[in-house]
Amino acid sequence: MVKEEQLMEEEEKCNLEYEYEEKKNRKCKNIIEEIAEKLKSEVEEEGKIEAAKDIRKLVRKSSSSGKTRCRFAAAGVIPPLVDMLQCSSSSLIAREAALLALLNLASRNERNKIRIVASGAIPPLVELLKFQNGNLKELATAAILTLSAAATNKPTIAASGVAPLLVQILSSGTVQGRVDSVTALHNLSTSKEDPKLVLDARAVFPLMNLLKDCKKYSKFAEKTTALLEILSNSEEGRGAITNADGGILTLVETVEDGSLASTEHAVGALLSLCQSSRDKYRELILKEGAIPGLLRLTAEGTPQAQERARTLLDLLRDSPPENRFSSSTLERIVYDFAAQVDGTDKAAETAKRLLQDMVHRSMELSMSRLQLRASSCTPSKVQSL
Predict the structure, then answer these.
(1) Would you say the pTM of this structure is higher than 0.85?
(2) Which DSSP string corresponds to 246-300?
(3) Is residue 330 within 8 Å of 286, Cβ to Cβ?
(4) What residue ranges are annotated as transmembrane (predicted)?
(5) Structure letter (DSSP) for residue 323
(6) Is the bond preceding 379 in cis, omega lying within 30 degrees of 0?
(7) What is the dihedral of CA 157, 158, 161, 165, to 10 degrees?
(8) What is the dihedral of CA 310, 315, 318, 320, to 10 degrees?
(9) What are phi and psi of 208, to 5 degrees?
(10) Tens-place pLDDT, residues 211-254
(11) Closest to 120 in 3D by CA, of 83, 75, 92
């Protein structure tokens, strides 16, 4: 009997919880429909602004925000919100309210991102990026970032002419604006469909400054170096990297201290430079002390980074075939170098890895330059590797 009573109590409790949820869902659905109707039918701008604010408020406060976003989209709020962005008679306050509502609807919802772009949101967002109003410009950048995360949207956004405006924000925007701009450009650069993102070489200087200031192993550094690698594929981009204050040095430092992804992109950019004109860029790269980081990368990088590092090391060597060292000389020089980089405890292991790799790939570096680099390494430099 006791067990039956417990089961009945549990069943009654479940029924009450279900009824509560159903009642709560009906109430939420009614509120959403009322707000949607108000947004679509209201003539006065003030009423539309109030409805847009209510959408944002309800999404943010909802315990099931994912469902709430879907319900608002199903209720048809996206087209009138986009109209508020497009309408030339809309005040800045109205555009801001619409933009914030759309941002909340797009967050963590792929379908809503696609719906917003399909409703024509990109042209007015591009126009907002041209505004002097800093807050609207920053919100528009955040919207482009959010919408560009959906693969379907990337070609449309790339074709809108947004790239030069995002590059401007890289130089003059707030910290958040610059971070959002880098991420948006990176999203667009990964599109597998045409039209592809076209990056102006003027992006190099602000990107290089951002890379200097951030942690080389961060996700932000990965996105920044990915964009710099793309820029290194054009003559204008290569020239800008060379002319940027500490440009090549910053890439070399990223090879030394970056994450697997950022080192891959950084060595890719250096390789692009050297492959385009070995005579022009070889000494510039060597002068910044690239050899130690590249040697380490041949053993510790991603497969693509290792391949790129080997190819670049091959381009950086300058000893002719007849002046090659014997294997014992090679082993001694690499061991001495490894001892200064990793200490005597790990020198044998590091040297073995490097030698195996070099033999396997039939790569022989300029031993005289390697010997000079190893002997000139100070303790402080070694510690930073």
Answers:
(1) no
(2) THHHHHHHHHHH--HHHHHHHHHHHHHHHHH-HHHHHHHHHHTTHHHHHHHHHHH
(3) no
(4) none
(5) G
(6) no
(7) 80
(8) 80
(9) -65, -40
(10) 999 999 999 999 999 999 999 999 999 999 999 999 999 999 99
(11) 83
